[in-house]
Every structure is written in C-alpha cells, then in structure tokens.
Amino acid sequence: MTISRRQLLASASALSLPTLAMHSAFAQKAQFTLKYGNNLPVTHPMNTRAAEMAAKINAESKGRIDFQVYPNNQLGNDTDMLSQVRSGAMDFFTLSPLILGTLVPAAQISGVGFAFKDYSQVWAAMDGDLGAHVRKEISATSSVFAFEKIWDNGYRQITTSTKPINTPEDLKGMKIRIPPSPFWVSMFKAFESSPATINFAEVYSSLQTKVVDAQENPLAIISTAKLNEVQKYCSVTNHMWDGFWFLGNKKSFEKLPPDLQEIVTRNVNAAGLLERADVLALNDGLQASLKAKGMLFNNTDAALFRSKLRSAGFYADWNKKFGEAPWALLEKYTGKLA
C-alpha cells in the first residue's frame, strides 16, 4: 500500500497523540524501552511508517517492547542524536549517509554528486554490494550498526530565493545552506559556491532571515518543511541521491533476546521498503502541488554539472579518499565517473 499526499497531511495531527499513547500503554509492563529519533516532520513518509512500525513491534512483542518514536528533532539536532545513539542514550536514529560520513567516511560514497542516474541504479547498489560494504564499515568503525534496508530521502534539488539554477555558473558565489558534512562542502566549493553548514532545524529561519539564499533537499522535505514559503525557485538538478540509514546502538540491541531482535529487524526493514514506495509516490505529485503554491520550477542538464565536477577534480579527489576498491563498487552500478 502507498500513502497519498492527502493521507499524509491528514494523519499529521493524529500521529503524535497515538505515539504518546503508545508510550504510556506499554511503558508499565515493557521489559525493554527503545527510543528512536529523527529530524523529519510528522507528515513525512518516514514518520508515518515509523508509527506503524512501532505499533507492530509493540504488538508482536506482546508488550515486552515499548518502541517509542520521537520525530521532528524532539531529542535534539542531528549532531545531538548521533552522539546519543553512539553512547546508548538513544537506541535508534535515522541519518543521511552523507552526515554519517563525518563519523564513518565510507558511508557517504552513496552521495557522490550526479552519480546515480535513476532509482534502479540506487537500489541495485544499496541493496547490493555497495550497501553491504557501507554497513560493514559502519559496524567495524563505530558503536552503531545499520539495518539492511536503507530508507529513501529522494533525489536532492536546489531551491533559491534569488534566481533559478540553470548551469553550474549560476551557483558561483551563491550562499547555500548545506548539512554539516565535508562531502557537501567539497562539492559546492567545486561549483564555486559559498556553502554554509546549518542543522536542519534552523534551515527555515536561516532562509527567512536571508542568512543564506539557497538550500538543497528532496522534494518531500521541501514540501513538508514548507520551504516554498521562503524560497521562490526550485531547480531540478537531481544532484545527489540521499537516503537514511536506520542506525542502532550495538550494545542496546544485543541486550534484546533473539526473538525480539528478529521482530525489530523484520519490521524496520519492512517499513523501510514501504517508505521507499511512499516517497516515490509522493514525489510524483509534489511538483504540481508546489507549483500551485507559487514555486517556479526549471529542469537542468546533468552533463554540464558532471563535467564541472570532473574538471574541478571532485571525482578524482574522492576516488583517492574512498580508495580504489570502494570506488570500483560505486562505478559497478553508476558507470565510469572519474
């Protein structure tokens, strides 16, 4: 089943109350209380599916688990929540591979600019050898692990308040908000922009007060965060595919008996697959919806931007940083980049 945009919006006001009720209903008898936080609005497909997932986990465990969902930065910003899941103060967290790359550099390889041409390449790679490589590196180099199925965040687009982005030259000198990741910094510096790293919770106000003139995000986030209220143009660049690794604290997860580990794992992965379909369906109607609200769209030629990155040495630099073997895994699915 996929969820329509109308259903997502209709469920927004109802989502928080059942979640809170779910906490209190199971808290008294639960053997294990598991906290999951994310940075997205309650209307995003991630939180719709997370609420369903939590209810299923609690029910299938017969109340032994009280799985709690905290959307919309309730437990802190990305940096705070990553620290919490690493320490075990929080049990689960969904994070972009590109931001996770500040802790596990190998994780950000899936976000190489203008690499994946379509979703068939994305899922072949992330459900295949490239995803397996990244999960292995996450587990080997940190106190967290990633579940098998990465969740979708969609292809990222650039929005601005000043002008549309038609060519790489339009990005020159542009004050653009990016997430706190060296990977984003290097890409937009290759485009000669002026990137500023700002946590997502502060994006709307930063655009509203003109601290920055532009930002980049998937359409689902542009819509649910109402960024169209502070941005006029949306340039369809598809410059990065982005997802969310569903991360867990190793020690916390290992405290669960095998049967409960299986219940959590199965439901997390199943919810991730449903969320992928939701994001795809939602994106199909978002352009029309945002246009109706006054946002102006333009298409771009990916070859121009890829050529600029290649000439700036972006691909060659990251080939060296990731190493030949991981880069070969990426190009197994994308074709030659560097």
From TrEMBL:
GO terms for cellular component: outer membrane-bounded periplasmic space. One of its GO terms (biological process) is transmembrane transport. The keyword Nucleus does not apply. Its main location: other. Keywords: Signal, Transport. Residues 1-27 form the signal peptide. Pfam families: DctP. The keyword Transport applies. It is found in: Cell envelope. It comes from the Bacteria. Belongs to the bacterial solute-binding protein 7 family. This is Sialic acid-binding periplasmic protein SiaP.
